[in-house]
Amino acid sequence: MLLQLRFDSDVPIYQQIRDQIVVGIANGQLQPGQQLPTIRALAAETGVNMMTVSKAYQLLKQEGYLQTDRRNGTVVSGHRPPGQPEESTLRALRVSLSELRLAGLSKDDVIRLVERLYTEGGD
Amino acid sequence: MEWWVNLILWGTVIWIPILMYVQTVNDAKFKKNIAVGVTIPPEFQQDPELLAIIGQFRKTEKRLLWALLLSGVVLSLLPLSLGVMLTIYLIWLDVVIVVPMVPYVRCNQALKAMKQRRGWRRPDQTAAATVADLSTVDLWKEKPRTILFFLLPFVLSLLPTAAVFLEGDAVMGWVMAAVGPLWVALSWVFYRYAIRRKAEVVDDNDTLTETLTRLRRQAWRRVWLWMAWLMGLLPWCMVFYTTQPVVCILGTVALTIVFTAAGVWQEFRLRAIQSRLTAGSGQTFYVDEDDKWIWGMFYYNPNDTSLMVNARVGINSTVNMARKPGKIIIGVSALMLLLMPLFGVWILAEEQMPVELSIQGTVLEARHSGTHYEIPLAEIASVDVLEELPSMVKVAGTGLEGVRKGQYTAGEYGRVTACIDPRTGPWLLVTDDDGDQYLLGDSDGTTAQVAAALPQS
Q1: Is residue B167 included in any domain, yes or no?
Q2: Are A66 and A76 in contact (CB under 8 A)?
Q3: Which of B134, B303, B304 is closest, CB to CB, to A3?
């Protein structure tokens, strides 16, 4: 799975890493139990600071997407996070829906768009 | 200058324009969707305008090659001294390295301009973006071959070095230790630790990324293993340095040629594989890092914390010029390249400067440029005047037409510290109270007078 980071984005790098890994898990590019690079390796691969990668991994662990395995290091969690979405996710969804509404999309347009993106797994 | 010295000098440098030509022209062939340092989308790689620019670049490089080779042949025919020839060859070498880069940069700029004009640039892959492949994680756990592969060349290099030390020749022993065991150990360090670099991401094909990365790492490790063997074998040639210098030189030259040829072969083999494997890649997504490469050859990425990075194609490495150490490394390398002819000027000055021998108060003083030997007259045990020079083999020091200085082995006299002009005799063999021997002489033919003034001549 490819990770694409933008240093000129308003979204912090750790957040970009976190978001893309979540999308990767959702669309099946990252399978439960699949091993992720070590913090050091991913930092070297992307050229970012190790602290940044560490922060992203920490966040993903807290949210239940990743877990630390003593033998395999950091792996994609087999357990899904709790069914109820986090408040932050709902807040982001509200903002996105408002933006789409302001862009002139009808409710049906938005539902169709969401259905397509959901099927694609968030790509 | 002797004809064979000229031949060796010529043979050392004449192949470089050929190598530069082969490399720059090879860069014009697509590898990882890159030609002449510019990433081109797969569907446009056969564009007629693009092919015309690349074709013109190839023609210019070929013309340059013939001009440089011809000038190299003409230079070899000049009847000049070593210092002058060395200076000329080193200036020529600068020209040979820098000049082929001019059409390269011009072609790179033309391709970039065309890419911009045609709208082939990827807006999502600017200098402020990076791509990494999460699936290449297993490569990080790859264990290199055991240190045992390096132990054999290490032991091999240690044996002649230890033998020379045991014979009591510490100077030669240390020289051999620096060339042999130390370099074998360094090769292992490079083999083992200099490998942790970015994966070779070309597109979204994980298998391709993994294959390209593995191949590059294998090639890198292979070269350092070969380097260990070269350095393991070199001390065996150096053993003959004092007794059979021709064997030593021929052995060293043969080993260097074999290693260089193997390294060049490895580079072009890897490039060929990269070209073959990535032909047709990037149909849905491709990596474009052009904005991070100045002229397609100097890496500049302030968002990358790495100092050492892979060259875009082949096996080589380069540095990130956005980092201070990177700037220093490139700056020092460029300076060394440009100042290289000064080495020839220095040899020229050494060649021209006379050797002086005189009595200054209570000491016998031999002097040549920066070298300065003083022997207190009270410590001189014996002085022999030699009308003929013994056969001399340099251990460490300078050996030119007009001067021999430093540590030498002088025929039946054994190890001496020399400071002579071999063209002007006689020469003095001075032995001090400690048994140390000095072979001294003056360039202006006054050695006999100095000898007469010495206490035990």
Answers
A1: no
A2: yes
A3: B134
Q: Flag whether B272 is in a domain.
A: no
Q: Which of residues 58-117 of A touch B (CB under 8 A)?
A: none
Tell me, yes or no, whether B285 lies in a domain.
no
Distance of CA B92 to the CA centre of its chain: 16
Q: Which of A21, A37, A49 sits opposite B140 (nearest CB)?
A: A37
Distance CA(B454)–CA(B402), nearest Å, equals: 25
Q: Which residues of A touch B133 (CB under 8 A)?
A: 1-3, 45
ipTM comes to 0.70
Q: How far is A36 from chain B (nearest CA, A)?
A: 6
| % of chain B surpassing 90 pLDDT | 48
Among B427, B435, B371, which residue's Cα sits nearest to residue B399? B371
The pairing of strands B437-440 and B415-420 is: parallel
- Interface with chain A: mutation pick from B137, B193, B213, B288, highest number of A CBs within 10 Å: B137
Whether A45 and B198 lie within 8 Å, measured CB to CB: yes
Q: How far is CA B361 from the centre of its chain?
A: 46
**Which parts of B224-321 are beta strand (E)?**
293-294, 298-299, 308-310, 317-319
The three-class DSSP label of residue A69 is: strand
Return the pLDDT at B144.
Answer: 62
- pTM score, whole prediction: 0.79
How many domains is chain B partitioned into structurally? 1
Instruction: Kindly state the tokens that stand for B7.
Output: 């031949």
B260–chain A Cβ distance below 8 A for any pair: no
Residue A22 has pLDDT above 60, yes or no: yes
Cβ atoms of A23 and A117 within 8 Å: the answer is no
Where are chain A's structural domains?
Answer: 13-76, 87-120
pLDDT of amino acid A71: 78
Is B445 part of a structural domain of the chain?
yes
B130-146, pLDDT tens digit by residue? Answer: 888 887 755 656 666 67
**Contacts (Cβ under 8 Å, ≥6 apart) of A30:** A1, A21, A24, A36, A76, B134
Instruction: Find the residue in A nearest to B320 (Cα).
Output: A47
> Looking at the domain A13-76, which fold is it?
Arc Repressor Mutant, subunit A (1.10.10)
Cβ distance B131 to A2 less than 8 Å, yes or no, reads yes
Q: What is the DSSP string of B149-162?
A: HHHHHHHHHHHHHH
Measured between CB atoms, which of A6, A43, A45 is closest to B128? A6
Q: Which domain holds residue B401?
A: 356-453
Listed in sequence order, the residues at least 6 apart from B105 whose beta carbon sits closer than 8 Å to its beta carbon are B295, B296
Q: Given an 8 Å threshold on Cβ–Cβ distance, is A48 in contact with B126?
A: no
Whether the predicted pLDDT of B241 surpasses 90 = no
- Pairing label, strands B427-432, B437-440: antiparallel
